[in-house]
Amino acid sequence: MDDAELVVAELASNAVIHGCNGADGQFDVFLAARPDGLEVAVGDPSSQLPTRVETAEDDVHGRGLILVHALSAQWKALVGPGGGKRIWALIAAESLPGVQPSTQVGPGIEVISC
Question: Which residue range or ranges hold the Histidine kinase/HSP90-like ATPase domain (predicted)?
Answer without folding.
Answer: 2-75
